[in-house]
Amino acid sequence: MLSSNLSKKTVRSMVESSMESTEATMESTEATMESTEATIVQPDQIRKGISALNQYMEKTGNKSAFLSDSSTIHLAMCVKKIPKVKNKIIKVLLPHSQLPTPTDVCLFTRDINKKDRDYGPTERHFQSLLQQNGVTVVTKILPLKAIKLEYQPFEAKRNLSDMHDVYLADANIVRLLPGFLGKHFYGRKRFPLQINLDSKNLKNEFEKVLRTTQCIVSGKGSMFGVNIGHTGMSEDELTENIDAVVQRISSLLPGGQQNIRNIHIKTTHSPSIPLHVSFGGADEVELPARQKRKVVDDPQDVDTVIGAKVRITPFGRIDLIGEAGKRVEPNEDGEMTPVVSDKVRQNNSAKKPKKNISAKTKKAKTKKRVLKAKNVSQLEKETNIPKKKKKTLKVKKEALINETVKLKKAENIITKKRKAISDVKQPSTQVKKTSNNKKSKFTIEICNR
Question: Mind listing the pLDDT tens digit for each residue in 178-198?
Answer without folding.
Answer: 888 888 888 888 889 999 998
